[in-house]
Amino acid sequence: MDFPKKSKIKVLKSPDEQSLDTLLPHNCLFYILPPMIDVSLKDFEDLAIERLKLLRILEQAGVKHPKILSDEWKEHVINELNIAGLKYFVRLLRGNGNTEQDMNARRRDYLSHFILRFAYCRSEDLRRWFIAREMELFRFKFSSLSSKEVKEYVELYEMGYRPISEDQKQEVRQELQSSVLHNIDGIDFYKVSFLAVLDLVRQRKCFLKNGFAYVSSMDFSIGVTLEDSLRFWREEFTKTIEPDKFDKSYAYGIRYNYGKEGSRTNWSPHSCMKVINTQGTSQDACGCPFKLWDASELRTRLVNYGINPVNVQDVISLATKGHFQIACSRYFELTHNTKLDEGISHPNGYFENSQILMENREPKSKTPQMSQQNQRRQHAMTQQQNFKRKLEARVKAEHDYDEELWKLSEQEEQRMAELKSKEKAQIEMELSQLESMDWDDDDDNVKELSDLM
Amino acid sequence: MPEIKVKEFDPELLPDMLPVYYKRLFPHKQFYRWLSYNNSLQHELVFDIDLTDYDDVRTCCSEANICNKCWKFMSVACKVIDVALRDDFGFEHILWVFSGRRGIHCWVSDKQARQLDTKGRGAIADYLQVSMSGGEGSTTKVALYDKQHHSIKRARSIIEPLFDEIIVEDQDAFGTTQGVEKLLKMIPDENCRKDLEQQLTSSMKDSRTVWSSFKGYFESLRVRSQLKPKLKYVVEEVQMAMLYPRLDINVSKATNHLLKSPFCIHPKTGKVCVPFNPNLVQKFDPINVPTISLLLDEINEFDGKRNEIAETPEDKSRIKDYKKTSMFKGITIFEEFLRKLEQSLKSQAITISDKKMDF
Ligand SMILES: [Zn+2]
């Protein structure tokens, strides 16, 4: 939706807004205090829709260019924002500024964030999606700050980041260099409690000493702190606002279409979507594994299924961003060495596709002498040819891949069987624990509190 | 630990012995001190390492059994984790406890550790989790690249000097056909695997020869610049895969898991879950950990001697019973841990009250 320039300034500049500005000291905002001003119904709606457009653009960019903050990704976001008439957001993605235009952009950013936060606090899935997008936005904003701006930023928000002097840096030079991904020369480092950068800790992507993580301004843009801030608000909202009341108070304006549009895949209620939306724990054998398993669990499993680390990271980052189905499709592509024209949207679809691929591969692999001919055929094929034939050809050309492929499919079957027997064992265990409180044979370790109570 | 005669433990007698143990020996006072350092719902950060997770690399014993050779796995694990918790995370109040049978527990009690949420615990556990295992029957693997985090380098510097002694000699890991097969499985390249298989299985060789041929093979490829990048660290990867601590990280990640507390009696072995000093873990002897039966004998014996030399009754009562037994050392370690913990709480309290004075 396009706004005439004048109305933007007029609408958002009243006495209340004067004090509002003190809450917005920087183009790269932390959304700490919610707004306490009156906003007209129309503005409320418009701001919500603008924010939604922005987040959708980020989502689309992530689908097209999975590497967040890559040049292509950034370019995509900027282009789309310009096309959508959201030029003020573009301004916020270009470092800090203090002109009237900057202030206006900050106000719209701030208000629209909180409005949409209302709309997206209603369920775990909405929250997840919202936070993932907001994190991307924050990272984009932060990554465009100059190193001087980062310093100001850290002081401004009193983030407890202590700059490390060049001497201190040289003292731990070797350890530091081997513990971060980029070159450390000429880059400012800050000392921060390891608790503030748990995602870096988890992946061993920062140097740790005495409870402090040494992070550079590049590492900052991971934006972990925003997530923590959002986590707080998410809890606050769900505590104080009854769903009923929320609907009555806010149902008038915000028509977000999450689940209906928003990506090239059809996200409307599908079996996968249903599975994803069903509550479950990672111990359950039901539910979408890409949602239930946390990053480390997923990593362990994927590595064990023989996926190479680069691709593992790929799948994990999709899953942690809330793209469970895309992560699943990517996993399918990797394990079947193929490219899917359509994403996985139904568990049955996964197996059907898998079956088709396997059946087509088996007889071909028995005649390796065909491979040269097949390779020629593969070259001749065009992109227009259908899904199945394309896959077939690719596989024929890589006949020696079949052995590995079959192993993987066997592993997959075994995994499913294990999941089933695990579920059974779980039930049996619970029953037996009800009967007896004795430490069992493998009792050196642990009991769940819940089992004992 | 002084030499102790191993006394047969009979689980049948446990119900009779426990009341005496809890009345006369269990360090109640220290325990209350430990529990009273917080009154809210806090939970230590805990780690659980169990020898059964090493069954694919230990040949000396299996399952619940344990000997001084396999204790070395625990010793390495303790050293690697302890230094990471102290140097990297800055934790100071760490209690290591023998789990009573075949493993070790670690309790991190620093305030910051106790207040960690699930995400924080998960991050630390993942940081310390290096090897990948698909569970029973599969080969544990570690992948190393040119860029190695300082914690990985440090772990290597602990593990590599001990590898020959623990794996090659004690465990005789490559002295059998199965052992050689396992070693070959860890090579992520089929051609090299086949090459080496021929070399290593052509005639029966001892563990030491197999390991030096293995290293020699890749070294000669390296010298001729024929070593594929993915095989660059294959030797180090094998060492790490076999000796890097195998944590049960789910125990550390959750706050609703319970570990057996220190000074519990293991119901199957009768052994006390005694704390030990991580700096001397290599000298800890899990075989001669006192059992409840031994302890009860020890107090009786002690009391008997006292009576012989006709001490006054009050005198005798002043000596705490546990001080008369071989559990003494474990309790001293526990007391020292508590003393430091209380000290740090006091100094925190002083800092807070100083701040209040500013107003
Ligand atoms: Zn043994």
Q: Could you explain how this protein is built, in words?
A:
Chain B: Keywords: DNA replication, DNA-directed RNA polymerase, Metal-binding, Nucleotidyltransferase, Primosome, Transcription, Transferase. Chain B: One of its GO terms (molecular function) is DNA-directed RNA polymerase activity. Chain B: One of its GO terms (cellular component) is alpha DNA polymerase:primase complex. The complex is a heterodimer of chains A (453) and B (359). Chain A has 453 residues and is mainly alpha-helical. In chain A, 62% of the residues lie in helices and 4% in strands. Chain A has 4 domains: 15-145, Transcription Elongation Factor S-II, Chain A; 151-216, no CATH class; 226-257; 272-370, no CATH class. Chain A is built from 24 helices and 5 strands. In chain A, helix 7 (124-143) packs antiparallel against helix 13 (224-240). Chain B is of the alpha+beta class and 359 residues long. Chain B has a domain at 1-128 and 245-359: DNA primase, PRIM domain (Alpha-Beta Complex). Helix content of chain B is 51%, strand content 6%. Chain B contains 14 helices and 5 strands. Chain B has helices at 14-25, 28-35, 68-88, 111-114, 118-128, 150-170, 177-185, 190-201, 207-223, 234-243, 249-253, 292-308, 313-318, 328-357; strands spanning 45-50, 94-98, 103-108, 257-259, 275-276. Chain B is globular, with a radius of gyration of 24 Å. The model of chain B has no long low-confidence stretch (mean pLDDT 87). The chains are: A mainly alpha (453), B alpha+beta (359). The A-B interface holds A 174-175, 178-179, 181, 194-195, 198-199, 201-204, 207-212, 294-296, 300, 303-304, 309, 438-439, 441-450, 452 and B 48, 50, 52, 64, 87-91, 99-103, 112, 116, 119-120, 122-127, 129, 132-134, 138, 141, 143, 147-153, 248-249, 251, 256-260, 266-268. Bound molecules: zinc ion. Zinc ion (ZN) binds at residues 58, 60-61, 66-67, 69-70 of chain B.
